[in-house]
Design a protein that fits this description.
By secondary structure, the protein is α/β, with parallel strands linked by helices. The chain has one domain: Rossmann fold, CATH 3.40.50. The protein contains four helices and ten strands; from the N terminus they run E-E-E-H-E-E-E-E-H-E-H-E-H-E. The protein has a six-stranded parallel sheet with strand order 7-4-3-8-9-10, sandwiched between helices. A two-stranded antiparallel sheet has the order 1-2. The protein is globular. It starts with 10 loop residues before the first strand and ends in a 6-residue tail after the last strand.
């Protein structure tokens, strides 16, 4: 999907809330973060209302030419699993190879039903599926960098090759993978918008959705509603 030979004009839609949002189909990408069974109600690491993001995401997808779906894809011996740390429990903080690591319940194990995209998500419309957290000793929240904050996932190069300058983020969870993805995208110089009604958060006492939203605002992230773009 290159910009060469394209004669399509930027898409625009007037939503039910807020101002009209114009999507430049050649220079924009929709990043759908980790809408997987284990992060939805009934999953191993369920986010409250996680499945509620599917309807607004599906509504937005037709407005974008470039749609990226990220997918947590952990080996069973992953460093983030509390079960791999004897004597420790989920949500404790440890150090692994010099990196602070928050421990989680086992989730999104490679090839498991929990790692699959949630039924109903229009995953067949994806231009790219990015699997992250695949290394046993290195976690990955952001779709752009591993948690060592220096190893790139390769997504930036793919986006740059297409001429993408603006990223629209949605999915799970707003205070972890969406948050880190948005902050990294801003550091790399992308314009970033987070779709408020298409994200849900873990909201742990140690972090929190409101803190994440405030930090994103300070970094220059815009906030929109799905009705403004679809």
């Amino acid at each position: 999907m290159s910009r060469c030979g394209s004669s399509r004009a930027p898409k625009a839609a007037r939503g039910r809330k807020g101002k009209q949002v114009t999507i430049d189909a050649d220079r924009s990408a929709l990043l759908v973060v980790d809408v997987q069974n284990d992060f939805c109600p009934g999953g191993a690491l369920a986010v409250s209302g996680g499945d509620e993001v599917i309807e607004p995401i599906n509504r937005m997808i037709p407005a974008f030419r470039h749609v990226v779906l990220s997918q947590d894809w952990h080996p069973a011996d992953h460093v983030s699993f509390a079960s791999n740390w004897p004597g420790h429990a989920p949500y404790e903080l440890v150090e692994a190879d010099g990196i602070k690591q928050l421990l989680w319940p086992d989730h999104c194990v490679q090839g498991s039903p929990g790692a699959a995209f949630k039924a109903g998500l229009a995953a067949d419309r994806a231009s790219l599926v990015l699997r992250k957290g695949t290394r046993p000793r290195l976690d990955s929240y952001s779709v752009l960098f591993e948690n060592d904050r220096k190893t790139k996932t390769g997504l930036e190069g793919w986006l740059r090759s297409l001429g993408v300058e603006e990223l629209w983020l949605c999915g799970l969870a707003s205070d972890y993978c969406v948050f880190y993805s948005a902050m990294d995208a801003r550091k790399l110089g992308f314009g970033v918008a987070v779709v408020r009604d298409a994200v849900r958060g873990v909201d742990l006492p140690s972090g929190g959705v409101e803190r994440a939203f405030e930090e994103m605002r300070r970094a220059g992230v815009r906030f929109v509603d799905s009705g403004q773009v679809a």
